[in-house]
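Think of the structure tokens as a kind of shorthand, similar to the way a musician reads notation: each symbol stands for something richer, in this case the local conformation of the backbone. In the example below we present two proteins back to back. Begin with the first one, reading the sequence and then the tokens, and try to describe in your own words what changes along the chain.
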Amino acid sequence: MKTEPPRDHEDDSSSPRSLREALDRVREWARRTATTPAVRSSRKELRSLGLALGTPADSTRPLLSGARNAWVRHLPHGLAFAAVAALLPVTTTVLVQDYGMNGALAGAFATAQTAPLLLAVSRPVQAWWVIFTADIVAAVAMLGTPGLDGRSWPWTPMNIVGYQLLMICLGLRAGRRTLLAVWLATGGAGLFFEVLSQEHSDGTQLLTFTLSGALLLLSATLRERGDAQRRLVEQETISEAERSQRTLLEERNRIARELHDVVAHHMSLITVQADSARYRIPHLDEEAAREFSSIAESARESLTEMRRILSVLRSEDAEGERTPQPGLRQLSQLVAATVRAGVPVTMSRTEVEIAAMLADLPASLDLSLYRIVQEALANVVRHAPEARTTISVSVESDSVTVVIVNGPGRARRVPLETTGTGHGLVGMRERVRLVGGTLDTGPLPGGGFRVAARLPRREKEPDPA
């Protein structure tokens, strides 16, 4: 009788030892797979998406709360209230009559699925958690109802409508990562119910997933576009403020450079007179001569310090400012140049009369008046060419007044300057403030513009404001 060799139990795949070895190999494969870069990156992304779902939006202000009109600010609350008022009773009725659910349970589900829409106006992420959880629990509960056959499942039509309204609120407030997490969670819930019961599934989960993605994308795009426009407006406002400040500083520097030339002229005269005193004044004693020499030395030191300060203010293209500064005595030359530019300008007084009236006017005031007239005429040339313009100069015991009035002129179709310096009215105000005067500018009722500057005959301390 032939005897069979004993069977090797280690080769039997059904033995406990073989099962343990298979499980160990599976665990080792899972451990090695979990340490790969792709899996680690995927786990990190899933973790960040989970954190995004738990992070509320940065702002809790209601939607459209920044609108100017009061009815626009209250519009989101009104729409949310209308949606709740319409969906709550309909959802309760459908769950009771069509699905055969208990009335109390149906009312609780309907409230949890619709009432948080009021919260979504200001806190959409928190509202999504409540509605999403209520939708999932209600879908599981509907599996045990007698009227499920032939009905929409897992989402009812009311669920879909309310959920899409919630998606709009989320897209207008939450960040991109949060929106992606909400969309994936919606798709994951639909996939779960598809696997749970393919018999009752009617494709509403795919419809909800598609509509949610489209509304999230559309509302988020609108929100980001609005944010970009607001940032652009803020940047333009900041740029305009910086440009105004830069214009003011540039004009002050220009005035300081011009006044330096005026002051330097007087200081040079003091130096020359003090140095030549011993030669011009006969029988000048030695002590007086030393005093005049000290005055001349102090004047020269002051000039040196002024030139050192001016080197900080003077730009590279300011070499032409070393020439003598003009005054109202050169007003006729300025008027002639303006007439050649096409603006008819007339003066109420002749150049000789103006020179006689301003004989004792300080040079700084004379320069300020000339620059004010120059800027006013330049504005007429730029903005109202061919406008008839009148310049009036009047002198009183304590002040000098210059008035420039132009009538309406034709508007230029093509601007004379593509980029304005902005120095016109800014420069006028700074010059008037420097000498303690007043400036009145504004349009005329019948068209045109008026500039009136009144400067004191003797300089006052400027207003520090």
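Once you have a description of the first chain, move to the second and do the same.
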Amino acid sequence: MSTSPAGPPPPADGLLSAARRNLRELAHGLSHASHPPTPPLANAPERWQRLLPYALVLALAATFIPVTITVLTSQYGLPGALAGALGVAQAAPLLMLAHRPLQAWWIIFPADVVGALVLLARDPGQHDSWPWPPPVLIAYLFVLLALGLRETWRTAIAVWVMTAAAGVVLQIVASSDRDAGSALLLTILGAVVLVIGGVVRERGEATRRLAEQETISEEERARRTLLEERTRIARELHDVVAHHMSVITVQADSAPYRIAGLPEPAREEFASIAAAARESLGEMRRLLSVLRSDGSEGDRAPQPGLDRLQQLVEATVRAGLPVKLSLAAELGEVPPAVDLSAYRIVQEALANVVRHAPGARTQVSVRASRGHLNVLVVNGPAPERTSPLENAGTGHGLVGMRERVRLTGGSLDTGPLPDGGFRVAARMPLPPPDSPSAPPLSEDL
């Protein structure tokens, strides 16, 4: 087996081209801010927090403008007009640090260099600091801190390199009698300030990303819980619908034998109804197999209803929860879906009491009123903080209750009580008294 010769390797990126690329990236970082022109606390909940950055930069400008002018006139002997122009150029852009720190640096840095050249023409005094006077140096550190908090590492490094290079060039230009100690001091302190600002910025971004991920995880968890609960409800309601379809099939198949003298078209119609019902049952079984694609097995016992509420309450009482049941003697015709939903709502409400308020007295009431079935579960506060009696529930709490009530076209009202208890009230519609009732679920389905 012959192989074609490999082509020549791609040319390596030389040092010169890599240097040009890095310089272009540095120039882009210095000319384009990496953040929108908004202050750091623009999304803070409190008004005073949103105004805090503006108050800080206003205080900086109000402090450094007069101090810089005073130092330049008294210590360096500059004329008042020249000192005023330099002081304003070197300190007034501090007002921009809240929203545009990079643009502020582009004004302050050239102003500081021009100020150093102006001072170079003056005779050095005994205590003169050159090329950066003390107020200029301190104000510049605030600029570097703002850059570190808002800009990327590439931009911060480019600013630091330009600052250090300016100090070196000024030292070369100056005569030997000039001590450029402030240039070295600014280079060292500037690196420290930029690192601190960058670390604080990255920590804030990491915290923000973590909060976003937690929010997304909570939303995904809630969505998954809702889908799981809907799937579980669909599995349970399959038995209810399958029972009715089975009854339709049996009635259609047995009609020719139960009703004498049926004409042939009627027999064919009943046979068609039975075939359609059997086909629907097959489709429902295939649908249920999809819902059980996780390998879980379905319950073979009949679905519970209001007739088993007494057993549920007795089992809960034996578990240590004082529960009182008030069940109306005559509820009328309750549809199977409402019957199952009412039982599950009471079951989940009692499970929540066991988990969150063990030992609390609980009242369960089921009544039929004005064409609706009203289910009310009210518990008082727990007598004392104890460990939960059980750790696993039958569903997903209020999510499952809400979905069951929505399925029947009813409404659900839940919430804490003033005394520390909790209330669950479900209202589900019942069929009119003259509507045909559905046959009860048989135990052998």
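Compare your description with these statements about the second chain. The CA atoms of residues 332 and 441 lie 16 Å apart.
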